[in-house]
Specification:
Elements lengths: L2 H14 L7 E3 L1 H23 L3 H19 L6 H14 L11 H31 L4 E3 L1 H22 L2 H22 L6 H19 L3 H21 L5
Parallel strand pairs: 1-2
Helix pairs in contact: 2-3, 2-5, 3-4, 3-5, 4-5, 6-7, 6-9, 7-8, 8-9
């Protein structure tokens, strides 16, 4: 085998080796925000359990389910905190009929287990914050990054739905876009200086509903462009949210 061929093979092999991916993780800002949510959850559930009342427990569990959910939706790199958020959401969602009954004792157990997950989330965040000081990540993800990613997902779904020229495919794509608008609403309602993005998310939900209710493709296009414009607003103003 000649040297030229050997060199060509070596170059091909080296080019096929995947490049080292930058170390990724959550930004300290994101982790501190999660810590605040965990503190709020623990305090709310602790106070609710002091004098258990069925009606109050139902309300506080739903409020807590939404707070756990908003953390779960951020897709944390802090794995233990993400796991705690997911479990906490399940414990609090008493509408899940396959888990437990809705009598007072069952609701108390749900609240106790959810509180444990809030404590677990808090501890996990402390550990992950310490890790960022010891070994800073090369690429950190902020809450604004999550919001922008949501907006891009919406834009892609809407574009695919419009390009399909098919009501069946359109409905699937718009239903998903509406869910992401709702996820964005849930997240931004818990952030500061984020009202323009929150308003755009709420209007986006309405625009998606109008698309799904539209009787012809002309109206579909009108409402879809409106929804896409709102997604663009979310992306452009995401950095303002704290």
């Amino acid at each position: 085998m000649n040297h030229g061929l050997l060199i060509a093979i070596a170059v091909l092999m080296l080019s096929s080796i995947p490049s080292m991916k930058a170390q990724e993780g959550d930004s300290p800002e994101t982790l501190k925000w999660v810590s605040g949510i965990a503190t709020l959850l623990e305090e709310r559930l602790t106070n609710t359990l002091k004098i258990p009342n069925q009606a109050n427990l139902l309300i506080k569990l739903i409020e807590s389910s939404n707070d756990f959910e908003v953390v779960a939706l951020t897709g944390l790199y802090c794995h233990e905190a993400r796991s705690a958020a997911e479990l906490g959401r399940q414990y609090c969602n008493w509408l899940n009929s396959y888990t437990r009954d809705k009598d007072l004792n069952s609701l108390v157990l749900r609240a106790q287990e959810a509180r444990q997950q809030a404590v677990r989330m808090q501890g996990a965040v402390v550990g992950c914050l310490q890790d960022t000081t010891k070994k800073p990540v090369e690429r950190s993800f902020s809450l604004a990054d999550v919001i922008r990613s949501n907006a891009e997902t919406i834009e892609h779904d809407l574009a695919d739905g419009l390009a399909s020229q098919n009501f069946h495919i359109l409905s699937q794509k718009v239903e998903n876009a509406e869910r992401v608008f709702h996820d964005t609403e849930l997240l931004t309602s818990r952030l500061n200086n984020c009202e323009p993005v929150l308003n755009a998310a709420q209007e986006g939900i309405k625009a998606c509903m109008a698309i799904l209710a539209a009787p012809n493709w002309s109206l579909v296009t009108t409402h879809l462009h409106q929804a896409a414009s709102l997604a663009a607003t979310i992306k452009d103003r995401a950095e303002e949210c704290r």
